C-alpha cells in the first residue's frame, strides 16, 4: 500500500477487485488504484499516514460496508475480520468475500463485540470506520482484541457525534480523551477527500 505519483496503490495478489476499474503496472507488479474519496484509509495515505496496515497484519475492520476499502486491504493481508451490521451491505460484502479468501465477514453489531468474540483472533491492526454517535466507544471496546503494540485507526466522523459543534472542537475533545488511556502516534484531517473526518492512530500499550 503506497502513494506513488499522487495515487494510492495496492499490490494486486488476487485477480479480483470489483471496485477497481483501474490497474497499473510498475516494474512487473500489478497495482490497483484506491480512491481517497471513497476510502478513509486511502484519504489517510494521501494526507500523510505513516502507519497503514502491513502485509503480515491480521486486521479487525469495523464498518466494512459493501467492502470498498476491505476489497483492497484483503489483497495484502493474511486475514481480515470484517464486521458490518447492515444485512444489505453484508450481502454485497459476501460476493466479494467469495472471491477474496482472506476476508472473514461477520454480520454483527459492533456495539456488542462479546456476541462475536468467539469468532475473533488477536489482531495486529484495528480499523474502525463507523459513523455513529458512539463511534469512539465502539473503537475502545475493541482494543482488547488488539495485540500489545498493535495499531488502532479510528476514522472519526465528527458530524455523527454532533452536527452543530465545529469539527475541530470535537476532534480535540476525542483526542484528549484517547490520550489519557493510550499512545497517539499520529492524526490527520482527511480534507479535502473526506469532509469533517479525521484519522487518529494509536498504539496499544497496556501499560498506559
Ligand atoms: C462509513 S461506512 C464504512 C465505509 C467502509 N469502511 C469503506 O471504506 O468502504 C460505515 C458502515 O458502518 C456500518 N455500521 C454502523 N453502525 C454499525 C454497528 N453498530 N455495527 C457494525 N456496523 C455498523 C454501516 O452500516 C456502514 O456500512
Write the layout of secondary structure elements.
Layout: E1 2-4, E2 7-11, E3 23-26, E4 29-34, H1 40-46, E5 58-62, H2 68-73, E6 79-84, H3 87-99, E7 103-107, E8 123-128, H4 135-141, E9 146-157, H5 158-161, H6 167-179, E10 183-189, E11 197-203
Parallel strand pairs: 5-6, 5-8, 6-7, 8-9
Antiparallel strand pairs: 1-2, 2-4, 3-4, 9-11, 10-11
This protein binds S-adenosylmethionine (SAM).
S-adenosylmethionine binds next to helix 2 and strand 6.
Assigned CATH superfamily: Vaccinia Virus protein VP39
Distance between the termini: 30 Å
Tell me the number of strands. Answer: 11
Number of helices: 6
Shape: globular
Write a concise keyword list for the protein shown above.
single chain; 208 residues; alpha/beta; Rossmann fold; seven-stranded mixed beta sheet; four-stranded antiparallel beta sheet; binds S-adenosylmethionine
Walk me through this protein's architecture.
By secondary structure, this protein is an alpha/beta fold. It has a single domain, classed as Vaccinia Virus protein VP39 (Rossmann fold, 3-Layer(aba) Sandwich). It is 24% helix and 32% strand. The protein has 6 helices and 11 strands. It has helices spanning 40-46, 68-73, 87-99, 135-141, 158-161, 167-179; strands at residues 2-4, 7-11, 23-26, 29-34, 58-62, 79-84, 103-107, 123-128, 146-157, 183-189, 197-203. A 7-stranded mixed β-sheet has the order 7-6-5-8-9-11-10, sandwiched between helices. The longest helix is centred in the middle third of the chain and has 13 residues, at 87-99. It is globular. It starts with a strand and ends in a 5-residue tail after the last strand. The model has no long low-confidence stretch (mean pLDDT 95). Bound molecules: S-adenosylmethionine.
Amino acid at each position: 500500500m503506497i502513494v506513488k505519483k499522487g495515487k494510492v496503490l495496492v499490490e494486486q495478489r488476487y485477480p479480483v477487485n470489483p471496485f477497481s476499474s483501474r490497474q497499473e503496472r510498475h516494474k512487473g507488479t500489478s497495482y490497483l488504484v484506491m480512491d481517497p474519496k471513497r476510502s478513509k484509509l486511502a484519504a489517510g495515505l494521501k494526507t500523510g499516514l505513516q502507519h497503514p496496515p502491513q502485509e503480515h497484519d491480521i486486521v479487525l475492520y469495523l464498518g466494512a460496508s459493501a467492502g470498498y476499502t476491505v476489497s483492497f486491504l484483503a489483497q495484502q493481508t493474511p486475514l481480515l475480520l470484517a464486521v458490518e451490521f447492515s444485512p444489505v451491505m453484508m450481502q454485497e460484502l459476501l460476493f466479494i468475500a467469495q472471491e477474496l479468501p482472506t476476508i472473514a465477514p461477520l454480520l454483527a453489531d459492533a456495539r456488542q463485540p462479546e456476541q462475536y468474540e468467539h469468532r475473533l483472533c488477536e489482531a495486529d491492526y484495528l480499523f474502525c470506520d463507523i459513523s455513529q454517535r458512539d463511534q469512539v466507544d465502539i473503537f475502545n471496546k475493541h482494543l482488547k482484541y488488539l495485540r500489545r503494540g498493535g495499531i488502532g485507526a479510528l476514522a472519526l466522523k465528527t458530524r455523527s457525534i454532533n452536527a452543530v459543534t465545529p469539527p475541530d472542537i470535537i476532534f480535540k475533545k476525542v483526542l484528549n480523551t484517547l490520550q489519557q488511556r493510550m499512545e497517539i502516534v499520529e492524526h490527520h484531517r482527511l480534507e479535502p477527500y473526506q469532509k469533517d473526518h479525521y484519522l487518529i492512530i494509536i498504539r496499544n500499550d497496556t501499560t498506559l
